[in-house]
Amino acid sequence: MTSSWKTLGQFIKFNLVGIMNTAVDFGVFMILNRYLGLIYTISQVISYSCGMVNSYFFNKFWTFQKKEGFTAVEVVKFIFVNLCSLGVSLLVLYVLQSKGGWKVLPSKVLATGFSVGVNFLGNKFWVFETTA
Question: Phi, psi (5° rounding) for residue 71?
Fold first, then answer.
């Protein structure tokens, strides 16, 4: 398999994991907030964290097929990449909304695209250090 096909396969898996992360986030949020009565901010922090844990495990072992155990450095890199991805999405949203006058939905779609790109590249080449 050529490296570009391998990268495409990883990108598809990465996005499938992203969909699953979103489902985990929403599911945990609804259980905590709606059914257990936790306030929404606490529910959001816990549910988002559950989605990130899901993302770490599935991307490590399935998307990028890393078989080594866990290291603190890898986990810190993973968190850093996710924070950078969030920062990129906020920056793109700000520029398109405040400076460009775009509507919210197209801004969010473009911001998500940039965020996914940063997240994928950061995970592939830095967190899990896979080759092209």
Answer: -130, 150
